[in-house]
Amino acid sequence: MPILLNHTIVPATDKAAAATFFADLLGLRVGAPAGPFVPVRVNEDLTLDFDDRHGVQPGHYAFLVDEETFDAVLERLEAHPGIDYGSGPEHGWDRRINRLGGGRGVYVRDPDGHSYEVFTAVP
Length: 123
Fold this sequence. Notes:
alpha/beta, three-stranded mixed β-sheet, globular
């Protein structure tokens, strides 16, 4: 069996709000609370477990997606002017996309300072 990331904990100030932000961004569903976590299943192999027990250290989470999913993410971002997003760390939150690796990519900052990267080709 290859090594697959099965789940990871995402620190949050409000686990339900953080899970909802992430799920809404990628068009996913927030799961029922499981112990101290609010899970969002990304695919058959990966779940992000949002946890508000230990404070937040902003992290970076990157997702390779298909063109249709990228278009849907971009539409959601454009519909919410209060969400910071941009083409990359060196350009800040310029509300643009990048073309790294021959595809399209965007970075999104959540309310806790986490950076979600969504891209269509591996940079």
